[in-house]
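Re: the 339-residue chain
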Amino acid sequence: MTDYLKIYILTTLAILVIFVGVGHHQGQIVGDLTRLGNFSERDFGSSVNRSEPMVRPEKKSPSVIVLGDSFSDHNYWQPLVAEAAPSLAMNTIHWRALAYPDCVLGWIRISKQANPHLRVVVIQSVERNFVFRFGNLMAECTSQKVKSPHKVVEDEHTLTARIRGIFPDPVYTLLAVRNGWRSFDVIESSGTVGVVPLSRDDLFSNRRSNRLLYFKGDEVKLEWQQAQLSIAAKNLRMLQDASDALGVKVLVAIIPDKSTAYRPYMVADPFGRFALDVWFELDRAGVRQLNVKSRISKYVGGIPDLYLPNDTHFGEGGYRLFAEQVRVGLIELLASKGP
């Protein structure tokens, strides 16, 4: 072996060892915001131990079905409802399981036909998708566009899978090291993640707890018009009335974006004068809802990691608050006799 080849091999091995060591120091990537923005888990990973989700078997004839997004994945909050109210038979279906998301009423109709025990559908969505998801909610749809309830359950068996950490690759490692040196004293971004300085350092448990990571997709709200929110809320009211006529009550739960929940603590506000309020519009339209924003606003300043510092989703405290709100709402709704 020539001296040149030896030097090349040793240099390559040294570089690999350095990357592996630095990557290990940064920590395995477990948050969607650290992954999307190339931030270190060492800086933004929660120091609060997160419980493993409980795998809850699907019910064959549920009285409650949750139609939800990633906040309803992985069974983080549903078992908490089941623990407190074991008589509630509840299944979860993801929005992606509907071939056409506009066809919610058609899906409720065939679900009721397939399962006469169905009494409530909880419609859960994150705030930023409100206009996108409900703006054409009552559009005409045919039965051919709606998957059968049995097919939906097959597709959704993966929801109980636990997301594991991903070991950092060299590109992520270099960018994470660079972001670790940046002060983020003003509103900045990295990839599709915004970074905002906070007025408090006790809202999160991570090392850089005086900085908020948020998904820049939240900024779609800056393009909203008042009329769009009104139409979406009225569509939900029409869905509610039509579903009531089928014998299935609809309960809406819109979860605030992380940037909405922590907006009162932002030193610099990337949303400027934005003041449209989804929950106010739902109330004005007479939609049966859980005002998740009001509940989160009450506790966000007192429970560290209500949302995870490295992620767009709730921490365990947030899921527990949401589960209790859903439990109370369901019990009250199932006990009521009127529409």
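The chain has 13 helices and eight strands.
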